[in-house]
Amino acid sequence: MTAEVSFTKRAAAELSRRFNGLTVRNRGSSANPSTPQSKGVGQLTSWVVEGMKKQQPQEPKGAKAAKETRPPECWLDHKLLEYFFAYFTPIERTKLAQVCRTWRDVLYRPEYWKGIMPVLHCRELRAMSGDLSSTSELRKRVYSSLEKRGFPSLCLFGAGDDDVYDVVSNFPHGYVRQVQWLVLRCCNITDKGHEVLLEFFHEVTRLEMSGCNEVTDAGLWASLHPRLVHLTLSDCINVADESVAAIAQLLPSLQELNLQAYHVTDSALAFFGPQQSGTLRVLRLRSCWELTNHGLLNLVHVLPNLTVLSLSGCSKITDEGVELVAENLRQLRVLDLSWCPRITDVGLESIACDLQVEELALDRCAHITDMGASYLATISSLRVLYLRWCTQLRDVGLGHICKMRNLEILSIAGCPLLTSEGLSNLVQLKNLQELEMTNVAGTSQELFEYLREQLPTCLIIE
C-alpha cells in the first residue's frame, strides 16, 4: 500500500503544477496561457486531476503495507500514456520521465523529442567527482538515453580532450550514424581531439563551433571533411584568413557558412572561387571588422547565387559596398547590414533599385533618415524590416513605412524621434504579425491599447 501511495504522490506532485490553471495545451495550440483551451483538453485535465485524487487510497490504521505494489493500472497503460504525453512540451516531458520506469520507457521515443538538441555539460559531470572514471556509468546511461530518444544532434558544452575520448569510447556505436549535427561550445578541445571527434561522428554534415579557442588553422585543415554542408565558426580567436582558405578548399559542397571572426581580412574572401558558386547560398560574416568594400568586390563576382548575406558588424563597409552587393547579387532575399555605421540613404537607394529582398536589417545605422525610409517603401517584396536605434527616423519616415502593406514583422525599437501621432499610423499595416516598440519615447499605454485593438492578430512588444 505504501509503495502505491508513494507512486501516486510522486506523479501527483509532478503533474499538479501543470494541471493547475489548465496549463495543458492541445497539439499546435498557442503557448500563450491566456488562450482559451478546447473542450477536450479541459475534460482531459479535469479527468486526470479527479482520477489522481481517487487513486489515493487511505491506509487503514495498523495495516502493514506490502513491500512492492504496482501503481494503478490506468497510469501504466501505454496507449493512454502515449495520448496523454502528447499534450506536454519537451521540457515538461524531461520531468515526467522521472516519475517511474514505465513513463520513462513511453517517453523515450523519438517522436516526443523532435526539434530538440541535447546539451552535455561536461564540466558539471567532472565537478560531481573530480574525474571521469567515477562518472563513467552515469555517462553511459546518458549516452544510452540519447540513443533511445533518437536525437539527430548533440551539443558538447565545456568539453576537453578527455571528454572527447570518453565519448569515443562509450558512445553507442549504432547511434553514431544518426548524429548529423554536432555543436561544440566553450570547449578546450585541441586540434587532435577535434580531429578524433569528427572522425568518430563520420555522418555529421552540420558543424558549429563557438568559443573553441584551442583549435587552430592546422586543426581545421586536418578535421574538416567534404561531407560538411553547414559550418558555423564564432568567437574562436584563432580563426583568421587561413581558416577561410581551409574552408574554401576542403568543403566543395558547403551550402551555408556563418563566420564571426575579428581577424578575417579582405584576403580571406579571395579564397572563394567557382567551386563554391554552385552550392553556397547562405553567407553570414558577422563582426568581421577588417572587411572593406575591396573584399566585397571579389565576393559578389564569385558567389552570384547567394540568397542570404549578413555583413552585420562589418563597420568598414560603405554605400559603395552596398551598391556592389545590389548590382551583382540579384537573387538575394535576406540582407543584414546592422551595425554598419557608414551606410546612408544612398545605400538604401541602391537596394531599392536593384534588389527584391524579403528581409532587411538596418539596426544601428545611424545615418538613415526619412529619405531612406521613402526608398524602402518602394520595395514591394519586403516582409521583415528591422530599424532598431535608427536615431534619425522621424514620423515622416514612419509614414512612408506605413505604406508597406505587405510588412509582417517590423522593429522600430530605440527610435527616439517618433511621436504618438506618427506611431498611431501603424494601424495601416493590417498584415503585421509582430511589432517591436521597446524604448520608443512616443509610446504610452493608451497607444499600445489602441494598436492592440486595431491589430488584434499582431504581437506587440513593449
Structure characterization notes:
- It is a single chain.
- Helix 3 packs across helix 5 and helix 10 packs parallel to helix 11.
- It is globular and about 70 Å long.
- The protein is α/β, with parallel strands linked by helices and 462 residues long.
- The protein has a 14-stranded parallel β-sheet.
- About 10% of the residues have low confidence.
- Keywords: Ubl conjugation pathway.
- InterPro entries: F-box-like_dom_sf, F-box_dom, FBXL15_LRR, Leu-rich_rpt, Leu-rich_rpt_Cys-con_subtyp, LRR_dom_sf.
- This is F-box/LRR-repeat protein 16.
- It holds the Pfam family F-box.
pLDDT < 50 stretches: 18-57, 62-66
Kindly, what is the distance between the CA atoms of the first and last residues, rounded to a whole number of angstroms? 54 Å
Q: What is the mean predicted local confidence, pLDDT? A: 85
Q: Proportion of β residues?
A: 5-15%
Secondary-structure class: alpha/beta
| Number of E-state strands | 14
Q: What spatial order of strands do you see in the largest sheet?
A: 1-2-3-4-5-6-7-8-9-10-11-12-13-14
- How much helix is in the residues? 25-40%
Main sheet record: 14 strands, parallel
The value of Rg in angstroms is 28 Å
Overall 3D shape:
globular
SS summary, helix count? 20
Keywords, please?
Leu-rich_rpt_Cys-con_subtyp; 462 residues; 14 strands; FBXL15_LRR; alpha/beta; globular; F-box_dom
In a nutshell, what does this entry contain?
The protein is of the alpha/beta class. The chain has helices at 2-19, 39-54, 78-85, 90-96, 101-107, 122-129, 136-149, 161-170, 191-200, 217-223, 241-250, 266-269, 274-277, 293-302, 319-328, 345-354, 370-376, 395-401, 420-423, 445-454; strands at residues 119-121, 153-157, 181-185, 206-210, 230-234, 256-260, 282-286, 308-310, 334-336, 359-361, 384-386, 409-411, 434-436, 459-461. Residues 228-300, 305-375 form the F-box/LRR-repeat protein 15-like leucin rich repeat domain.
